[in-house]
Amino acid sequence: MLTTRRLPMLLIMMLCCLPASAADWPEFLGPRGRGVAPEQGIRTHWSAAEGIAWKAELPGRGASSPIVVGDLVVVTASSGVRQDQLHMLAIDKASGRTIWHRRFWATGRTLAHPTSAVAAGTPACDGRTIVALYSSCDLFAVDLNGRLLWQRNLAVEHPRSGNDVGMGSSPRIVDGTAVVQIDCQGDAFALGVDMVTGADRWIVPREKIASWSSPLAMTTPEDGACVLLQNPHGLDLHRAADGKTVWSWKGECSGIPMTAESGSVLHVPSDGIAAVSPSAGDATPAWRSTKLSCGMASPLAWGNSIACINRAGVLGIGDTADGRLRGQIRLAGSFWASPIVVGTTIIAANKEGRTFLVSTEGEPKIVAENELPGTFTATPAVADGSVYLRSETTLWKVAAP
Amino acid sequence: MRQANALATFLFGLAIVASASHPATVSAAEEPPQTMAEAVAIATDLAKAAGPRGQTALAQQADRIAAMPAAWIVPCLAAYADATPAGANWLRSGLERAVDRAGDSLSAEAIAAVVVERKQPARMRTLAFGWLRERDPSRADGLLDGMLDDPAIDLRREAVEKQLTAVVNAEDGVQQATHRKCLAAARDVDQIERIAAWLSEHGEKVNVARVLGFVRNWRVSEAYDNAKGGGFARVFPPEAALPGRPETGQWKAVASADKHGAIDLNAVIATKKGVLAYAIADIVMPRSGQAEVRIGSPCAVTVWVNGRPVMTHEIYHASEAIDQYVAPAEFREGVNTVLVKCCQNEQTEPWAADWKFQLRVCDPIGSPLATQPE
C-alpha cells in the first residue's frame, strides 16, 4: 500500500545528485588523479600544537588517503587481529566530528606487509556515491549518508585474487563506471562496475603479476573516456564504456608508482621516466630520463613540469617536453606518499611524519618543513585551503590560513 | 564547470517545485517491517544474498531493517546462522543503522543473552558483544570471565587478555599459574607467543612449535626440476604414486627445530633455484572427520592428505605467514599421511631466497589436532 512520505527525503536525494564541487578532492591524487589542486592559499607552517583545525583518531590502521566531498572527509581503515574489520568513516570537514561510520567484514585475504594495510586503496566519489576498495578485494559503494548501495566481494567471485603483501590499488570512477584493477599472481583482472547497480559492465583478464598502481582516467578523441592500467610489463588503455583495449605499450614499468599524464603524454615510471604518447603510432618513448626516477611515490606532472621523488628522497623537477632536469633538492626521510602540487608549491609527506612544502618557481626550494607524530604512507589531500594528512591511525586537518 | 553548477542549481530548484506539488511516495517494499516475524524474515533473506545482481533491492531491504524498532534488532541476529559473506555485510549494514537509531533503547540485557549463547554463530556473538561493550562496558567485561574456552575466537582472545591484565601486579605464583592457564586457552599466534615469552622470562621454557601444533617430523625427497615454474603442474614420481603412498625409502628424515616448525629446504637439500621437492609426514588424529590443513610458505605449494589433493597455490614470494593458506580435509582416526610439494622459482632478489614451509592441522579456531607417532 502506498503511503506519503516526508519531503526532505526527495530533497536529500536531489542534493546527492549535485556534481562534485571543484573544491573537492574526490579520489586518489585528487581530481582525475592528477595530483594537482587548484591554486589556493594553504598554511605553510604547522605542528601537532599549531595550525591544526582538528584531528580524528581512526578505528583502525590504513594507508589510504582521505577524500573530500562537499562537507565530508571520507577515510577507510581496517582493524581486528586478522585485520578483517573494514571501516569507512565520513567526518565533518569543519568540526572533525564523525557523521557516520560503516563497518563491514572482509571476505577475502587480509594479510599485508607492515608498510601497507587492508585499507590501502583510497576511496573515490562521483559526487553522490563513494566506492572503496580494500586489499581483501572487497569493493563497497555507499551514498553520502553511508547507506550501503552495493558490494562486490571479488575474492569470493574470483577465489585466487589477492596478494599477501597487500593489494594497494585505488578504484577510479570513469563515465559512470567504477574501475578496479586486481593485479596479482592468482586471479588477475580489471573490472568495470556500474556505479548505480554494482553489476559488471565489463571484465578484462590481466597478466598474472603483482602490481600496486591504480587506474588513471584519460580521454582520447577516438574513444572518449578511457582508463589506463599499468603493471610491471607495460600499459593498457581501455575504453571505460566496455573495457575494450584501445592501446597498449610494452615496456618495463614500476609496480608501485603509477603513470602521470600531462597534455596527453604519459610519463611512465620506467627505468627513470619514459614519455609515451598513445596518439603517436610509434611505441618508442619521445624521451627517457634516468635523472628523474621514482621510489615508491608516483610522479607528478602539471603544465610543462614533472616531479619525482627517488629512493634516496631527492625531489627532481624536469621538463615534460624533453625530460631535462631543471633542478633537484634533497628531502629527508623515506617517501611512500606521492607528492601533490598546489599552484607552484609541491607538498611531499615522508613516512616519518615530516611534510615538505617545496616552491617550484625557479630552482626548487624548501619553504617549510612541518612535523606530525606517526607513520605516514598516505598521499595528502587538499581542499578549500586545508591540507589533510593521514597517518596510520589518525587523520589530521591542517587549517586553512 | 560554471555551466555544470548552473544546471545543478536549476535542477535543484525544479525539485523544490516538483516536490511541493507532488508529495513523495514510497512503496511497500520500502516500508519498515510491520511485525517482528516480518523483520526476521527480511533479515533472513538479506543474510542469504549472493552475487552482484539485484543489489538495489537488497539495499532497500537493508533500509527496512534499519528502520525497525529496537526490540526486533536482537531477534534478527538469528539470521547470521546461514549468512553468506555478502549477506553478512548486508545484514550488518541494516542492523548497525538500526542500532544507531535505537541508542539507549536497545536493551543491553537482550544483547548479553545472545552473547553468551555459545551455539550461535561466532560472528553474530562477536558483533553483539561490540554493541554491548558500547552500551554497558562493565556487563560486557563481566561476561569475559566465562569465555576462556569460548568457541568464538575473538571472544576467547578478549577473555585471555582480561585474565593477563588482571594479574599484572599479582604475586609471582598467581601470575605464573594464570599465564599457564592462558597459554592453554589462547589460539591467536601473537597471544600465544607473548605468553610463552613471559613464561620463558620467568623460568619456564615453552616449546612454541609444540603448543601451536606444527608438524615437525618429515621425510624430504630429492629436488626435481621447476625451471620457469613448469614443475608446479608436472607429476613427478612421488605424485605418480598417489593416491597410494609414494616410495620414500631414500628420502631424508628431517626434524624441524624452528619455533614455527618450518622445514627449510635450502638447508635440507641445498640452496637452489628453479626446483621443487616433496615432503611427507605421518600424523595421528584423535578422531575421524574434517579438520583444517594450515600451511605457510613463500613458495608455490600443493598439499595432499591421504593421497587426496587438498589445496594448491601457485604463488611465489608474495609474503609468508603462519596459517597463510587454510583448507578443509577429511581425516581418519589414527594415522594419516600428509604430502607437500614445495616449489622454488628463479627469482634472484634477496627476499626471494627462502624455500620452506610450515604446516599444522587444526580445528576452525586454531586448536592443534595432529600429533606425530613416536
Can you characterise this structure?
The complex is a heterodimer of chains A (401) and B (374). In chain A, 55% of the residues are buried. With 401 residues, chain A is mostly beta strands. Chain A has two helices and 34 strands. Chain A has one domain: 8 Propeller (Methanol Dehydrogenase, Chain A), CATH 2.140.10. Residues 1-19 of chain A have low confidence and may be disordered. Chain A is globular. In chain A, the strands form eight sheets. Chain A has a five-stranded mixed sheet with strand order 2-28-29-30-31, with no helix packed on it. In chain A, strands 3-34-33-32 form a four-stranded antiparallel sheet, with no helix packed on it. A four-stranded antiparallel sheet of chain A has the order 4-5-6-7, with no helix packed on it. Chain B is of the alpha+beta class. Chain B has 14 helices and twelve strands. In chain B, the strands form two sheets. In chain B, strands 2, 3, 4, 6, 8, 9 and 11 form a seven-stranded antiparallel sheet that branches. In chain B, helix 7 packs antiparallel against helix 8 (137-143). The interface between A and B is large, with 48 and 48 residues.
